[in-house]
Structure formats: C-alpha cells, structure tokens
Specification:
mainly alpha, 3 helices
Length: 75
C-alpha cells in the first residue's frame, strides 16, 4: 500500500474520497456561476418599464393596471 515515495494517500480509499470531493466542488462552483450569469443577464437586459409593456402586450394586465403601474414607476 505504500508507493515509491512512502505515501499511502493515493493508494487506498482516500483517493476515491479526494476525487469525489474535487469533482463535486467543481460542479458546485460551475452551477453557482451559471446561476449568477443567468440572473445578471435577465436583470441587465430588461428594465421595469419594458417588462410592464411586455406584460400588457401579452394580456397579463389590463390598460388601467398598466397605467397605474407606469405612473408608479415614473414617480
């Protein structure tokens, strides 16, 4: 179980734990970065008034609600 350098770390079960933790950590970091990039793109691309106009165009809100929310955004 001891390799040429006298180390037992990579020759036993600890090797599997090391690789599992390393790969898991990389996957975790990639997912966090991917989520942040998606959130920042959505927030940067659309301004509140543009979102309101889209909701009105899709029929999600009526004209009176659109006017009310547009006036709230202006103030």
């Amino acid at each position: 179980m001891i390799d040429h350098n006298g180390s037992m770390f990579f020759s036993g079960g600890l090797m599997w734990i090391f690789w599992i933790v390393l790969i898991g950590g990389i996957i975790f970091i990639v997912k966090i970065l991917d989520t942040r990039v998606k959130e920042s793109k959505y927030l940067d691309d659309k301004k509140p008034l543009e979102i309101l106009k889209e909701r009105y165009a899709h029929g999600e809100i009526d004209e009176s609600e659109f006017e009310q929310k547009r006036n709230e955004l202006k103030s």
